[in-house]
Amino acid sequence: MTTRSLIDDSIDIILRHQARTGAYLASPAFVHYRYAWLRDGAFVAYALDRFGRHESSRRFYTWCDAVVNKHADKAKEAIAAVRAGWAGSAEEANRRFLHARFTVDGDEVEGEWGSFQLDGYGTWLWGLSEHVRRSGERSLIEQFRTSVDLTLDYLGACWQLTNFDCWEEHGDRIHPATLAAVYGGVRAMADYLPERAEELNSLADAVRRFVLERGTEDGAFVKSLGDPSADASLLWLSLPFGLVDADDPLMVRTVTRIERELLAGFGVHRYRGDTYYGGGQWPLLSAWLGWYYVRNGRHDEAAAICRWIESTWTTDGLPEQVQEHLLAPDHYQLWVDRAGMPAVPLLWSHAMYLVLADELQAAR
Q: Which residues belong to the signal peptide in this entry (predicted)?
């Protein structure tokens, strides 16, 4: 199959699994992912916006607006609690703060997953700004103004709290990748809300200073405060959230670590201690590294990654991860027995493949 046909197929897979409410199912065939995440969905919508599918993207952001408004009282109570000096446990935060995943109708999902995450709330604001920029639908900012303002207030109150990372893990830590998403969303909205611009730019600057002062070690960004290891999600600090430039020495050293510790062939692992389904290689993270390569003029390496991602295509689409090089092979069957076969298709994988393919086409 050609790249062009795989691009078309990726778009088709995403559109077929968008719910009537506008939510994108993370993975329709994997029972644990038959939900919608603000983070995953915003990246899916961003990919579609890059290919002119603005109507689908608009429907997703309409769903985000509805979700935030549906849980507005919970958000306001959380903001008030933090401002009053709240200092509870991760378990209590899971109960009292906004969740990360929802049903397609916008209801919270109870379960063992870490629910209190901030990255999705920054990402949906960043994604909305990208949708407006690419589609020209600036009126959406005002249409969604109530939920946008509430999300900004929520991020402003909560950004220094420990919360679960983008992998739903380590809820007792603070994560630079999460703060990059907060930074990206806040900074993006400052450009569209002139009456709040000074406040929002000040908040974004504070987040950036915090990451630069506390989220680095030995000249590179760290997975979490207190955990100096590498994590592929640290690519977010450059792309797309722009907390630092792609050629910033901190970012260059971070990517060098990711290449040395997490890259196997053309496939990127999440982090060295990953045991989820044996700790395989994630096509979406490989696409992220390829995206970074394009922005740094490493086009041949990015193209090789793109071809590798295409080689992982199954009859059902792109998987969440592949098992060519497992970090913890003894854990693979344990996860299969516990939760079934790995997720295929994963809409986030298709989204990041689309981003990389579009970047490569633009570079040519």
A: none
